[in-house]
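Researcher: Final request for today, and then I'll write up notes for the group meeting. The sequence and the SMILES for zinc ion follow.
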Amino acid sequence: MAVPKKKSGRCAQGHRRSHWKANPQSLVKCSNCNEMAITHTVCASCGYYDGKLASKKVAE
Ligand SMILES: [Zn+2]
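Model: Predicted protein-zinc ion complex:
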C-alpha cells in the first residue's frame, strides 16, 4: 500500500475538506397523503412507498 512521504499541511487539508459537505435531501410529494417525503424512502407520515403500504409501524 502506498504511504504518504510527507504530512499534508493545514492548507492542503482545508482545500480537501472544502468539498466535504452534505447536500440537501431532495423531497417529493407523497402519492398517498400529499406530504413532502424524502425520495426512495417510505413516507414518514403514512408509511406508503411506491403506492403501497410499506410500513405498518409508521401508519399507526
Ligand atoms: Zn405519505
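Model: Residues 30, 32-33, 35, 37, 43, 45-46, 48 surround zinc ion (CB under 6 Å). The helical segments are 10-17, 56-59.
Researcher: Thanks, that's everything.
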